[in-house]
Amino acid sequence: MTINLSATLVYLVLLYLTNLARGAIGGFFIYAHYLILILPVVSTIHLIITMIFLRYIQDFSSFHSVRGDRVTYRLRLSQEFPLFSANIGIEFKHINPHMGQIMESRTIIISPGKRLEFEFEIPCPYIGVYTIGLQELVVRDMIGWLTLPQSVFFYTMYVYPRVLDSRDFDLMALSERSRTGSRLGSNIDYSYFERLREYRPGMDTRMMAWKRFAAQGVAVLRVYNRVSDPGITLYLDTSREEGPVDELIEREDFSLEVLVSVAGECLRRGQPVGIRARGLEPMILRNSGDLQHLINASLNVEFSNQADMIALFLEDQRRNEGTGSSAIFISHDVTPELIRIFLRPPGESHSLEAIINETGSDEHQRISNRRRIIPLGSGGERIRFIDASKIEGDRLIWQ
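-> structure tokens emitted (399 positions)
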């Protein structure tokens, strides 16, 4: 509760003057003095009645949305007492990623038994967590003397990346493995020993049972069960070289949408996929139902000038040497490090592809990107370009 000192001072001066007028003149001023004398009591009772019978409801058209949507927010206030309400002050709060806090204030009076409704269209231009709702709701008495706060609450709304139509994406790694008969997603699990098999010349000796060979002089290999493991791993480049301007945020949000869209296309084709990005624990998606886990987790992806996608890839290769997985890099720049990875001899790397997000890039950057892939020759076909401004509806256009 707060007390308006200036209103209190004005009231006391009026009370004093009417008291003098009552003694000196009488008549009308006698009634005016007593009216002013009881006014605080009436005003306070009116304030309390308003507080008791005031109701409000906040409503959203959706608590989970995707980038680019507009969510409808409604506030309904009603006075359930046959009397005009006291002054009601309301303040809305709207906080979204990268735009800070947007607020709007109103002062209203509700007629007896009536309901007021306020409706706002909340734009969702960015991926992230939005905070929307009432910041403050207060009731002030008719003379502006007392102000009582009403308990209020706000909502958290989540805006996720869109899953765009990527059926036109030519997944080269999947096509090559199908033609050669290789089985994507097949990997050895060394915790499940299956059997021993006789060694024949040319077989890999890393699984040799040396103790059996020393004891019996028979060369045999240990055979382990194979388990399904993602044959394709998507690496998201979360590096950031500039400040958080609109163009930068648009590019990063679109990279997240490309990530979930390509992952969804892999799953649609029955291909398990791994996800590697800064801020996310390593993820393995095995069916279309798992895609929602990635969409939810995408809000935790961290873009930073400390991120290094290629270093993450090389670390994974050292740790999981021989898994036979293919990698698709999703980046915003054709860096020298990325080109060096593609130029490695065929026997030293797995099947590699790259998607370059050119959203917000100027013409000089676009020309530079294409010049850098010239040394790859026909391998340059494994690097494709995409731009948020060139999508058609919800369909990705690949270049």
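Confidence is low (pLDDT under 50) at residues 177-186.
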